[in-house]
Amino acid sequence: MITEPPDTDGGESAHAAEGQAAKRGLPRRTVLTAGAVVAAGGVAAAVAVDKFRAGRRLSGEVPTVAEYAVARLADLGIEHVFGVPGDFAFGLDNAIEAEKRLTWVGAANELNAAYAADGYARIRGAAILCTTYSVGELSALNGVLGSYAERLPVFHLVGQPSSKLQRVRAVTHHSLGDGMFRQFEALSAASACVSAHLTARNAIAEMERVITEALAQRRPAYLTIAADEALLPVIGTPVAGMALTEVPRPQSDPASLDAAITAITDRVTASKATVVLPAYTIGRFGLGRQLIRLLDASGLAYATTPMDKAQIPETNRHFLGMYAGDNSEPDVKKAVESAEVILNLGGVAFIDSNTGQWTDGLDPARMITVWPDHVRIGHTDFSAVYLADVLERLTTALSKTETPRLDSPATPSISGAVGDPVSSATLYPRLAKFLRDNDIVLAETGLCLNPMSRIRLPEGAVFHNQTLWGSIGWATPAALGTTLADPSRRTVLVTGDGAHQLTANEIGTMGRYGVKPVIIVLNNAMYGIEEILNEHQGHVYDVLAPWNYHQLPGALGCKDWYTARVTTVGELDTALTTAATHNNGCYLEIMLGRSDIPPSLPAPVLHMVYQTTPDSPPLPPIATVAAAEQMNGSGQLA
């Protein structure tokens, strides 16, 4: 719930702020209430606010609510804010602009801003999104919900109408015209693990509560500030912040941790074969190095699902390969499914798109699941036990055993004559060769995700997708976020044309901020993923508007980008060679054609996944909430 709803015109907070000003010898008029701002009107209001804020900064005065919230988030080490400006959010927008540690990144729309913040948080550990009330925050909602589903702490700052406008039930723009201003809060709050309405009186305490909870859960936070409250000085002593890497982790209950470690080691020691499945949460909580130490100390082998790919380098000698049910390589599938114990570290999401449409043959009874905040073994739940502590303790508790290794997969062969048309068979082996150490690889939801997840990545390269939420269009703005989060690494985005059309306008933002991604757009003129998920192909609703994709960077203001439309294998080789050395953004439109779209999934599989016919095959146990409850005791994925 939202704490301290904005149902007054400044009330106690405004009077208290005026009192503080009087004690400091400042004239009472320097405290700008909603009435003062509205009365100033238009440009005059903006000038008055800017002069007021600038004067206080120069004199070392207490920060405003907006300034404090923004500065407290900058303390975490976040350096960029993604958003779209709006009049109700001007207090926040101005505070962001004035904060020297932050750079405003103006996105093409709020949804794109949310996607970009999602990508940024995947690399930097947290992100800031700023929108205006209602029209702005609701436009961003899909993107923020994706961050919730995939456990990314995005701090969503929302500027609301002044508390006076809300109290008198004014009929304003960005509303339904009914004088009601609270109905949207519940919608946005549903996308967050913690919410607060900041006022002058509560801002200091609430920011600590919100930051602590968002980082503990690695999920978004929703922060609203009324336009008048944004301009008031905070009441109390500001907290000295710390970097994200220095924020203390929650500590496990000692007795529960001891019991969990004993139970895990007993099961693993008695097992003839244990395989580790590390989840995406290893990366979210920054535990990759601890996982490597555990694998080295125990000798256990591991595999990853597509969603969990490359949480640690795939050059690691303990790596078996990708596991996704029947979409796995046969030897990887056999190694995982024949193991007596599956050590699920972090909470793998056993969803349809992560398991080869639930074709995984995993028995929940053989699963030990270490969730971020508790452990589940059979029907026994060990509460208040945290993943970081389990990894550390298991590193010393497990005896060294050498799990049989699989032979390293052969390097995909490069095939195709110079004049041959490009196909998936000729494209993906070349993309595997194109990738280099430390790349940030993004694969959009669509036909490209499965073949990209099969590529064995080079040293230090990471892989990001949106397997759980699966909102097409996510990857292009997310690539903006990853390039800004770490410009020292190359971002390589692979996306289908259908998803790209949803958010391609963010390329203009890439040009504006000088980032240098490699964008590879696969043009088959269709929503290809929808085609294979339908029993019958060729539907008119899957046909896309024809775009000249390779001309987009120039049209959207990108300077000195290398762009190419590729139709043959020879052109593909030339384009990839050029992109590998070009010192700016690169944009390759790969013409695949509709003939490259795979056939539909078998009808029985589709009937089982979607349960649309009376005789649909039953769902496997792993696909139900009941199975999730057996594995983690809560029915939640993570």
From TrEMBL:
<dbReference type="GO" id="GO:0000949">
    <property type="term" value="P:aromatic amino acid family catabolic process to alcohol via Ehrlich pathway"/>
</dbReference>
<feature type="transmembrane region" description="Helical">
    <location>
        <begin position="31"/>
        <end position="49"/>
    </location>
</feature>
<feature type="region of interest" description="Disordered">
    <location>
        <begin position="1"/>
        <end position="22"/>
    </location>
</feature>
<keyword id="KW-0479">Metal-binding</keyword>
<keyword id="KW-0210">Decarboxylase</keyword>
<dbReference type="InterPro" id="IPR011766">
    <property type="entry name" value="TPP_enzyme_TPP-bd"/>
</dbReference>
<dbReference type="InterPro" id="IPR006311">
    <property type="entry name" value="TAT_signal"/>
</dbReference>
<keyword id="KW-0460">Magnesium</keyword>
<dbReference type="InterPro" id="IPR012000">
    <property type="entry name" value="Thiamin_PyroP_enz_cen_dom"/>
</dbReference>
<feature type="binding site">
    <location>
        <position position="497"/>
    </location>
    <ligand>
        <name>Mg(2+)</name>
    </ligand>
</feature>
<comment type="function">
    <text>Decarboxylates branched-chain and aromatic alpha-keto acids to aldehydes.</text>
</comment>
<feature type="compositionally biased region" description="Acidic residues">
    <location>
        <begin position="1"/>
        <end position="10"/>
    </location>
</feature>
<dbReference type="InterPro" id="IPR047213">
    <property type="entry name" value="TPP_PYR_PDC_IPDC-like"/>
</dbReference>
<keyword id="KW-0786">Thiamine pyrophosphate</keyword>
<dbReference type="InterPro" id="IPR047214">
    <property type="entry name" value="TPP_PDC_IPDC"/>
</dbReference>
<keyword id="KW-0670">Pyruvate</keyword>
<feature type="binding site">
    <location>
        <position position="524"/>
    </location>
    <ligand>
        <name>Mg(2+)</name>
    </ligand>
</feature>
<keyword id="KW-0456">Lyase</keyword>
<dbReference type="Pfam" id="PF02776">
    <property type="entry name" value="TPP_enzyme_N"/>
</dbReference>
<dbReference type="InterPro" id="IPR029035">
    <property type="entry name" value="DHS-like_NAD/FAD-binding_dom"/>
</dbReference>
<feature type="domain" description="Thiamine pyrophosphate enzyme central">
    <location>
        <begin position="262"/>
        <end position="381"/>
    </location>
</feature>
<dbReference type="InterPro" id="IPR012110">
    <property type="entry name" value="PDC/IPDC-like"/>
</dbReference>
<keyword id="KW-1133">Transmembrane helix</keyword>
<protein>
    <recommendedName>
        <fullName>Alpha-keto-acid decarboxylase</fullName>
    </recommendedName>
</protein>
<dbReference type="Pfam" id="PF00205">
    <property type="entry name" value="TPP_enzyme_M"/>
</dbReference>
<dbReference type="InterPro" id="IPR012001">
    <property type="entry name" value="Thiamin_PyroP_enz_TPP-bd_dom"/>
</dbReference>
<feature type="domain" description="Thiamine pyrophosphate enzyme N-terminal TPP-binding">
    <location>
        <begin position="64"/>
        <end position="173"/>
    </location>
</feature>
<keyword id="KW-0472">Membrane</keyword>
<comment type="similarity">
    <text>Belongs to the TPP enzyme family.</text>
</comment>
<dbReference type="GO" id="GO:0030976">
    <property type="term" value="F:thiamine pyrophosphate binding"/>
</dbReference>
<dbReference type="GO" id="GO:0000287">
    <property type="term" value="F:magnesium ion binding"/>
</dbReference>
<dbReference type="InterPro" id="IPR000399">
    <property type="entry name" value="TPP-bd_CS"/>
</dbReference>
<dbReference type="GO" id="GO:0005829">
    <property type="term" value="C:cytosol"/>
</dbReference>
<keyword id="KW-0812">Transmembrane</keyword>
<dbReference type="Pfam" id="PF02775">
    <property type="entry name" value="TPP_enzyme_C"/>
</dbReference>
<feature type="domain" description="Thiamine pyrophosphate enzyme TPP-binding">
    <location>
        <begin position="460"/>
        <end position="589"/>
    </location>
</feature>
<dbReference type="GO" id="GO:0004737">
    <property type="term" value="F:pyruvate decarboxylase activity"/>
</dbReference>
<dbReference type="InterPro" id="IPR029061">
    <property type="entry name" value="THDP-binding"/>
</dbReference>
